[in-house]
Amino acid sequence: MYPRKVVNEALRLHAQGWTDRRVAESVGVSIWTVRHWRTGRRRGPRQESYRDDRTTYCPSCAGAPLDENAYAYLLGLYLGDGHIVRTKKGTYLLAIYCSAIYTDLVEECRRAVGAVFPVTPFTREKPGCTVVQAVSKHWPCIFPQHGPGPKHSRLIKLDAWQQEVVRAHPQQLIRGLFHSDGCRATNRVRRMVSGEWKYYEYPRYCFSNTSKDIHAILGDALDQVGAKWKLVWVPNKAAHHQDTGTLSVAKRDSVALLDTFIGPKS
After folding, report:
1. Which residues have a Cβ under 8 Å from the Cβ of 111 and sit 6 or more positions away?
2. Please, are residues 205 and 217 in contact by the beta-carbon 8 Å criterion?
3. Terminus-to-terminus CA distance in the chain, angstroms?
4. Per-residue DSSP letter, 100
5. Is 3 in a helix, a strand, or coil?
6. Does pTM surpass 0.90?
């Protein structure tokens, strides 16, 4: 329980237009505490027990602490290749699909899930992929982008608190997105120079997804870190198939920048 003067000071700073993060740093409390003060919600005795009972542990509705670094990475994985389904018991199953050949990526995904939420992730093998799964009542709280149907068929927009996390950790979001629906590849082109064909090779990062909103989220994060990118949409003429957008980062300086924090799929 914090002194009333601390609460009042936090609310005063918020009224002046300060962000939750800036207020939290100024008064010396967590960002989640500031959000609960701002929205008028208070944790009751049952919610305070989240440290001992994982069913009440939730950064959104119980004020539990959040590992923002791990969350930003997991958010990228979820937006790229994840989904949430409701189980028969009324809980929710988070599933992140990882290529089976990238064993290190699978382990990093498992660590991120465990760091974000106090659950024990488990895996399920499917043809060509390993699915990292975990069950909780609160996955829709942590990933409010959950909804019926595929992601490209509905609005995908980050909540204000998620935007703050991404602004603080854009590199981790970018890593998660490229580790899910992206790759680093060598692009080969040929050009006619002085009457002769010249062949060139250069590395580039590519991210393919059918959701324009997810492309926009990635583009904003790349802008924040200063990476140049280009987005091209490829029409799909097959019935009931969505057009696919491919976002590429090919400028030498931008590729070198991403190399410093994305790391290889392995």
Report:
1. 70
2. no
3. 46
4. T
5. coil
6. no
